[in-house]
């Protein structure tokens, strides 16, 4: 089981909080699509003909891809890789791109799952974040996607921002539930170094982000989603039964994946590599027949720590039997000893062979994982 990720590094405008790799100039779009097609050729043996169960167009804003380009990319993927007939094909989209004709074209290209960057249904929040869409588009795109036959829908929402009250946050979540969206990815607003938001806060143009508010929004979110029947299957992800993201789940289960495009990451069980985060350098490298990337071989300790970090973020938790099988008895013993204080303080529990974070523990997931690193 393997996955393929394609990074489409273009956006209409820069959201103030964003630190992903993208450009707001579309001048290199054609060259980049040509490079992606070429990179597929160069990397066609990376997954060693493993069946590919998931394809994910991320970005940036993949819904900015012209329909013909998406068709060409999909056709080449099917020709060069062992994509299974029932593969989950996800495309990240922004609400302002999802008009009915676009939705029909995405459907025709084989996209069967949309991940929509709604972020908020409130105009004030959207303006504060410098999103390209408005609240009417946030709502309409979901209804249009459903009318176009997309049942497998996910939306992203951001909480903890200064313009979002507790009541506003509840309205956002209730709106998503009322629309019957089966999958939600919810993220705390974070201030990443070098972003416009970081600069505004430093210059006192906007207030700093309040971590207590974000923690409160996260706790409320867990309560509302549980009451609505959604499963909290990963720290930031909630799904109705049967609607988990296969692509993200396979990352967390250690499946191999190939990343295509600038800044995309790949993993083949032995090493991980990441393409250069620069469109021109990427395009020029591919023109010369070389994928510009850096790589590192995973030591057993790195692989174990990565497993601890990712597994603790999931509802299934960190499987100690699996740790013993893959890494030996000593790491398992260390994890059992290290986890005692978190179990005593109510942040973690033992469920059969696994260590699982409690609702309280999920607030500190990354810190707890770091404490348990080998
Ligand atoms: S649309 Fe997405 S990738 Fe583009 S700037 Fe906004 S958050 Fe970043």
Report low-confidence residues grouped into runs of 5 or more.
none
Number of helices: 14
Average pLDDT, rounded to a whole number, is 96
> Which CATH class of the largest domain is shown?
Alpha Beta
The CATH superfamily of the largest domain appears as: Aldolase class I
CATH topology type of the largest domain: TIM Barrel
Q: How does the overall form come out from the CA principal axes? A: globular
Q: Determine the strand fraction and express it as a percent band.
A: 15-25%
Number-wise, the strands total 15
With strands numbered from the N-terminus, the spatial order across the biggest sheet is 7-8-6-5-4-3-2-1-9
Write the element-wise H/E pattern from the N-terminal end onward. EHEHEHEHHEHEHHEEHEEEHEHEHHEEH
Distance between the termini: 28 Å
Largest sheet: 9 strands, mixed
Radius of gyration over all CA atoms, rounded: 21 Å
- Helix share of residues? 40-55%
State the domain count: 2
What does this structure look like?
The chain is α/β, with parallel strands linked by helices. It has two domains: 250 residues, Alpha-Beta Barrel (TIM Barrel); 73 residues, Arc Repressor Mutant, subunit A (Orthogonal Bundle). Helices cover 42% and strands 22% of the residues. The strands form three sheets. A nine-stranded mixed beta sheet has the order 7-8-6-5-4-3-2-1-9, with helices on both faces. α6 links the parallel β5 and β6. α12 runs antiparallel to α13. The chain is globular. The mean pLDDT is 96. The structure holds iron/sulfur cluster. Iron/sulfur cluster binds next to loops.
